[in-house]
Input
Amino acid sequence: MGKSQVRNNIRKLRFHHNEMTQEQLAEKVGVTRQTIIAIESAKYSPSLELAFRIAFVFGVPLEEVFSFEDKNFMNTKE
Amino acid sequence: MSYQEKNTTVSLITYILILGFYLVNLFQMYREEGLVSTRLFSLWAIVIIAAILVNIFASILTNIVLSIVHAIKTKTNESERFIADERDKLIELKGVKASYITFSIGVLLAMLTFVFGQPPLVMFSLIIFFSIAAEIIGDISQIYLYRRGF
Output
């Protein structure tokens, strides 16, 4: 399993929220720090529930945290 | 290394030790007097019970040791969060899948020994071997997934 097609801005958002640490974010959303690391590096796509929780912690809509990039899928849509 | 990863590593080591014990005893028995059912049955019982008990105690011990290490490191009474989140559960599922596939292949191979005219004791010995090997493969695949991120 390679990199997921779900991109994210978690690193940037953490920085803009008083340089929140991965550990702090992990604690707030109820997962381990390793999971936050895996999500940040796009190795793991979180569940919809976890994605919403992360967005809720930063107080932004889901689309501002996560984006989907799959060129093949986008081409088939057109 | 997360708590789950450490726990899986301990489980892997215990299963490797149990498999080693089983194989050493099995080959020793085979060289001395061939596969004798009474001795073989007791060996299977020891191995199966050891696999269950050792794993339970190893898990409890890991928990205690990790808590002590964490308390010494942080110098607080606050215990480490031993939670299994969604990623841990998915990794565990993948490990179980790897174990299941290994065991299924093992059972098929064990059945094949009948084709070559081997006694049932050989088949059951192979099934026991593959059941422990399946756990080892499951643990290795879990550790691999933890190391890679997912």
Summary: The first helix of chain A runs from residue 10 to 16.
